[in-house]
Design goal:
The chain is α+β, with helices and mostly antiparallel strands and about 325 residues long. About 40% of the residues lie in helices and about 20% in strands. The strands form 4 sheets. Strands 6-4-5-8-7-3-9 form a 7-stranded mixed sheet. Strands 1-2 form a two-stranded antiparallel ribbon. The chain has a two-stranded antiparallel sheet with strand order 10-13. The longest helix has 14 residues. The radius of gyration is 22 Å and the shape is elongated. It starts with a helix and ends in a 10-residue tail after the last strand. The mean pLDDT is about 90.
Length: about 325
């Protein structure tokens, strides 16, 4: 297998066969020897050493380098630590961009891949998958307003239930960053926090520190996004509408991110027509309309993702979040 075949094969392994960018992204961060080791995974260091003709000590050293680069992951099993390469382009993107050795040239190539190739890939995946991989989580609500919010859609409860917490930089804004929004806002939960701290790509948080990030993100107009399942999520991303893969591409957000179970509703009598909510909405779901000679906010239900960013800064408290989808809307995986 020649050099070109190796990197094309790596691209195939993460379901991006035919990509004009992914082989070069692998080539920039992994030499030919590392690429061959990645293709030989999964396996323990002992298995891989025997198959590829290395000493166990040498293989462990090389696997540790690949782990630090974000190219292989560990799973501790009774038979030993199993190493596997990144399973999809999302893992490849997020893990390698956070590696301290990633160059600006590397990040710039990811930017080209994101805007020139990723939309077609996402459209293809969205036709195959029954549900998006991620979903919007409503803004942090006051205690008295949580009666209709389930534990797994309450951002504070998700944080409290995580066990271990860490925060890393938003990889999307590391690549682009044109919005100028805060960078260190991607909260890692449980096992994801363990992974982050073992690699040294983020810092550990207390519950209080994590909630400070949540509140800051809401103030900055960032949308909370987590994994699309009822329990066992590994992340709370805080996404912008410019740079983040979730919302910044020319694709309908609902193809790649599910809305929350909620929609915003406007009390027209209380609305002062200030337009603050229009500026806050990332999805173009709010406009000003005339009612009895006065302008008030109007929400287009089909476009509302139920994030609640409009609600938290409404000076008249004229916006409420109403449950419009059944509890079963969130997969109980």
């Amino acid at each position: 297998m020649n050099d070109e075949d190796i990197y094309e094969k790596l691209s195939e392994r993460i379901l991006t066969k035919g990509s004009k960018f992914v082989p070069d992204l692998f080539r920039m961060i992994a030499d030919e020897e590392e690429a061959r080791i990645m293709l030989a995974t999964p396996g323990t260091a002992e298995d891989l050493a025997q198959r590829l003709g290395y000493s166990v000590e040498d293989m462990e050293e090389k696997l540790d380098t690949l782990f630090q680069k974000g190219l292989v992951f560990k799973a501790r099993k009774p038979e030993g630590t199993i190493y596997r390469m990144c399973r999809d382009i999302t893992q490849f993107h997020d893990a390698t961009i956070l590696w301290g050795g990633a160059s600006r040239e590397y990040l710039d190539l990811w930017k080209r891949q994101t805007f020139e190739e990723l939309p077609d890939y996402i459209n293809m995946i969205s036709m195959i998958m029954p549900k998006p991989m991620t979903r919007v989580v409503p803004v942090n609500q006051p205690v008295e307003a949580r009666q209709n919010i389930l534990a797994y859609e309450d951002v504070e409860q998700i944080v409290k239930d995580a066990g271990r917490l860490a925060v890393v930089n938003c990889t999307c804004r590391m690549v682009d960053g044109k919005c100028g929004k805060p960078l260190e806002v991607c909260i890692q939960l449980g096992k994801a926090a363990d992974y982050t701290l073992e690699r040294g790509t983020g810092r550990e948080l207390t519950v209080e520190e994590a909630m400070e990030i949540v509140r800051m993100a809401e103030k900055e107009g960032l949308v909370h996004v987590t994994m699309n399942k009822a329990y066992g999520s590994h992340i709370i991303c805080n996404c912008c509408g410019d740079c983040c893969v979730a919302f910044g591409l020319p694709i309908d957000p609902t193809k790649i991110v599910d809305p929350s179970r909620f929609q915003a509703r406007v009390d027209e009598e209380a609305c002062s027509g200030c337009g603050t909510c229009v500026d806050r909405c990332l999805f173009g779901a709010i406009s000003m309309v005339e009612r009895e000679g006065e302008e008030v906010s109007c929400i287009e239900a089909e476009r509302c993702m139920g994030c609640g960013l409009c609600q938290v800064t409404c000076p008249e408290e004229a916006i409420s979040m109403v449950a419009v989808r059944e509890e079963s809307f969130i997969p109980n995986l």
